[in-house]
Design goal:
Length: about 325
């Protein structure tokens, strides 16, 4: 399914026109065309390659899944690959959607899966068209990347909130909470690692466009790309800080578990010591030898008093040391 738009001298003139009309529109040097392909087939790639003279290697990158974010320069156009990111709070998982774009002097061709919200990009273009549409392809590329980077920041921020909530549960004593903290911390770390792989290279993409040898970005658009680059840096720094945060949570969880085990061992040792006292006394008085109070009520009372007094002394001692 293809979507098209035609801008002429910064004004939107037509949209959703047939692909066959693109060549006619591009004959006017003042015209800029946007072509969007959602889940294209090989025949669509072949047609676009022929229409715009796109390089074969760029077509291979666009049609191959799981390419890393990058910016490549070809004789007649540029190509970049990026990823939109969404964070699912309930599952603690990350969903990424690959977005590729071909940039010529007069056209932006975007390629993506059905999961990417291109309507959000179109809304961003419409919101800034009055001031920036005259800058053509540079403006279209900026709007696309701006939406992608904003989505990445939202995903990282949502992950940060989940990690903070997880940190608050570290000291809960129930086994359900302990197990949930362990499972979710590893799941969130996995999600963060996946985010890093698609977020960190975005500096190369935005920086490369801003300083490209094709001079796609003119002087008036440079501040907008610099602002976009600053957003990219914020996202990457945020992601790196979460990496340290995740490691701290995992280490803290292990330390808390170790402290709990030490506490349990102290309690078990204390109760064993208390139980050993009556065992020793009764064992002593149960020997088959005469002893003070043997076969008398006074002997039973004495042994009972020893058991109670020594047990209470041990209990109070361990309690003061916080072993019980």
């Amino acid at each position: 399914m293809a979507r098209t738009r035609l801008y002429r001298d910064g004004q939107l003139e037509a949209e959703d026109f047939p692909l066959d009309d693109i060549s006619e529109h591009l004959k006017d040097s003042a015209a800029v065309v946007w072509l969007d392909l959602a889940d294209p087939e090989q025949g669509d790639y072949d047609r676009v390659q022929e229409e715009f003279g796109l390089h074969r290697l760029a077509i291979e990158d666009a049609s191959s899944p799981h390419e890393r974010p990058k910016l490549l320069h070809y004789p007649k156009h540029m190509f970049f690959n990026a990823y939109a990111v969404k964070f699912q709070k309930r599952k603690g998982a990350v969903v990424v959607e690959e977005v590729s774009a071909f940039l010529t002097d007069q056209a932006l061709i975007t390629v993506h899966g059905a999961g990417f919200d291109m309507d959000g990009v179109v809304e961003r273009w419409d919101a800034t068209a009055e001031d920036l549409a005259g800058h053509g392809v540079a403006w279209l590329a900026h709007g696309l990347l701006d939406v992608i980077v904003d989505g990445q920041f939202d995903a990282v921020q949502a992950l940060d909130e989940e990690l903070e909530g997880l940190e608050d549960r570290l000291f809960e004593e129930t086994m359900v909470a302990v197990r949930e903290v362990q499972q979710r911390s590893f799941r969130l770390r996995k999600s963060l690692n996946r985010m890093r792989k698609v977020i960190m290279p975005m500096r190369e993409v935005v920086g490369g466009l801003m300083h490209s040898r094709e001079h796609l970005v003119d002087e008036e658009m440079i501040p907008y790309f610099q602002d976009l680059y600053d957003h990219v840096l914020r996202v990457t720094e945020f992601t790196e800080s979460l990496r340290d945060f995740t490691a701290t949570i995992l280490e803290s969880n292990l330390a808390v578990q170790g402290n709990r085990q030490n506490s349990i061992m102290k309690k078990v040792t204390s109760w064993a010591a208390i139980i050993a006292v009556p065992t020793a006394v009764t064992g002593y008085y149960g020997q088959n030898v005469p002893y003070p109070g043997s076969d008398k009520l006074s002997g039973f009372i004495t042994s009972a008093i020893l058991i109670v007094v020594l047990s209470v002394v041990l209990y109070v001692t361990f309690k003061r040391k916080d072993w019980l």
